[in-house]
Design brief:
56% of the residues lie in helices and 16% in strands. By secondary structure, the chain is an alpha+beta fold. It folds into 2 domains: 147 residues, Orthogonal Bundle (Triger factor/SurA peptide-binding fold), CATH 1.10.4030; 108 residues, Roll (Chitinase A, domain 3). It has a 4-stranded antiparallel sheet with strand order 5-4-7-6. It has a 3-stranded antiparallel sheet with strand order 2-1-9. The protein has a two-stranded antiparallel ribbon with strand order 3-8. The longest helix is centred in the last third of the chain and has 31 residues. It is globular and about 70 Å long. It starts with a helix and ends with a strand.
Length: 304
């Protein structure tokens, strides 16, 4: 709700300052226009996501920086989607429908805008995946990177399961207490010998319930703070809780924990391989963007 209010306030601010002339289109690529209204929505959302307050946004330069950032990103997205289509990437209507259903839409977007944006996102994702699969990192490059690098230290990690009891109305103290009581009752059953995975399948509201609450391995910073603190301090093999987070009450079973340690040669090489592949992928994507910009007729209709 706060984010929506922030977007509305920023929208009014942009309209009032009239920094850029109002035009039907924000830009066009080879005659295909991108709607100005949708562009403005993107700018509003970008500023709201940055948590900027109204006072900091009154300066025309700050607004212009956000507008230019969004403009560049949207042009690049359109160019990459065109490249994906040109290279033969296609997305089924069923896949588009599923993606639309799975992700919340930005307020103010039309049904067609949502479909177009989702289609482009899936096209780009498919194209990047294909591009990435063709990147090969030479063993010699990895050896040279090892010689120039320092062996990394792998952070402590834990392998755990959890049972989540959601707090759908966190403003209701009675509901919070009722769910906490339920969590204590489940904990008592676990302490009496009940199988954690079975109770997770039966009672957990998390998507991991189907797998007995299994979360796999995770390290620092991958879970919310309260959950992480409990998971890295709980005795291995002993259920703990209830632990309250923004998601609800958790019961946690740490199945294993690895201490921080230097990476093995194999782990180090794999990390370098992933890093070098990511760097090469970024270079290839940027090359496509640069070439597309040179070969396309791009007209920007907004400006100061």
């Amino acid at each position: 709700m706060k984010t929506l209010k922030a977007i509305a306030a920023i929208a009014a601010l942009i309209s009032a300052t009239a920094l850029w002339a109002q035009t039907p289109a924000a830009f066009s690529i080879d005659g295909e226009s991108y709607p100005r209204t949708l562009f403005d929505l993107k700018v509003q959302a970008r500023m709201a996501s940055a948590g900027r307050n109204i006072q900091s946004l009154r300066h025309p330069g700050a607004l212009r920086n956000y507008q230019q950032e969004v403009l560049n990103r949207l042009i690049e997205e359109q160019l990459l989607a065109r490249e994906a289509r040109r290279s033969g990437i296609s997305i089924s209507e069923a896949a588009i429908d599923a993606a639309i259903s799975a992700a919340p839409a930005m307020p103010g977007m039309s049904t067609q805008d949502i479909r177009d944006e989702t289609t482009n996102r899936l096209l780009i994702g498919g194209w990047v995946q294909r591009l990435s699969s063709n990147i090969k990192v030479d063993t010699g490059d990895i050896i040279r990177a090892m010689a120039a690098d320092t062996r990394p230290v792998l952070a402590e990690r834990a392998k755990a399961r959890h049972i989540l009891l959601r707090l759908q109305n966190s403003a209701d103290p009675e509901w919070i207490d009722a769910q906490a009581l339920r969590a204590h009752q489940l904990l008592a059953r676990l302490q009496d010998g009940a199988t954690f995975a079975d109770l997770a399948r039966e009672h957990s509201a998390d998507s991991s319930a189907a797998n007995g609450g299994a979360l796999g391995w995770f390290g620092p910073g991958q879970m919310v703070a309260e959950f992480e603190q409990a998971a890295f301090s709980a005795p291995v093999g002993q259920p703990v809780g209830p632990v309250r987070t923004v998601f609800g009450w958790h019961l946690i079973l740490v199945e294993a924990r690895d201490p921080a340690r230097p990476a093995t040669d194999e782990e180090w090489q794999q990390r370098l391989r992933s890093r070098l592949a990511a760097e090469e992928l970024a270079l290839q994507i940027q090359k496509v963007i640069d070439n597309s910009r040179k070969n396309a007729k791009i007209i920007v209709y907004i400006g100061g």
